[in-house]
Specification:
The protein is mainly alpha-helical. The protein has a 3-stranded parallel beta sheet, with helices on one face. The protein starts with a helix and ends with a strand.
């Protein structure tokens, strides 16, 4: 009787050890997965909230901005949230949370194109890097009040940080070329339907050899 009992007790102990080892292995393997799921849920919650807040600006158009421009600018800005915060990353989730808190505060007051520009800048701060959607595809025309002219060009928001720039249909002329060639980070540049002449285009192509210029 004693020997079978001892064997039984040893077997029970082994079973418990195996069970504990199995639990430990599960925790080690599952913990990172659970963490990633939690990060993803936090990210998607904030993405949805921020995008919804931005879309609510459709009904809060400033009187000095045309309705079509405002609606496009709002849609473009809501889109950058989905593009920049596509995959969960701890640093980006933290940045998005800061953006969300800041946006909630700003949304309590009047909103304008400056509010939308702030959102793009915050996206860049949260994501960073040259591949950030918020850096590559800033639509400066939509986010600028009034016509972009030679005199206003150097003051236009974010030009030194754009890698893709659309100034088509603006009132710029060859007088803007000396400034434009300083934007050496440009990879893609649209100046169709502007007042820049063929001579100005040649100077741009010479000054920005790595940039594709559409004219």
């Amino acid at each position: 009787m004693c020997q079978p009992l001892a064997v039984h007790m040893i077997t029970m102990r082994r079973s418990r050890i195996i069970a504990l080892l199995a639990v430990a292995v599960f925790v080690v393997v599952a913990a990172p997965l659970v963490s990633r799921i939690y990060q993803a849920l936090r990210l998607y919650e904030h993405v949805g909230h921020v995008a919804a807040t931005i879309r609510s600006f459709h009904s809060r158009r400033p009187l000095d901005v045309p309705e079509e421009q405002w609606n496009k600018a709002v849609d473009w800005t809501a889109n950058v949230i989905y593009q920049d915060f596509f995959a969960p990353n701890p640093e980006e989730v933290s940045g998005l949370e800061r953006l969300s808190r800041g946006l909630d505060q700003r949304a309590k007051g009047d909103v304008d194109l400056g509010t939308l520009r702030w959102i793009w800048d915050e996206c860049e701060n949260a994501c960073g890097g040259p591949d950030s959607y918020g850096i590559r595809f800033r639509n400066v025309k939509l986010l600028t009040k009034g016509t972009i002219t030679d005199a206003r060009l150097p003051e236009v928001w974010s030009l030194p940080r754009c890698t893709a720039l659309d100034l088509s249909g603006t009132a710029i002329t060859d007088a803007s070329v000396p400034y434009l060639v300083t934007l050496t980070q440009l990879e893609w540049f649209d100046i169709c339907d502007t007042r820049i002449t063929d001579k100005g285009v040649e100077e741009l192509q010479e000054g920005l050899p790595k940039c594709k210029v559409f004219h």
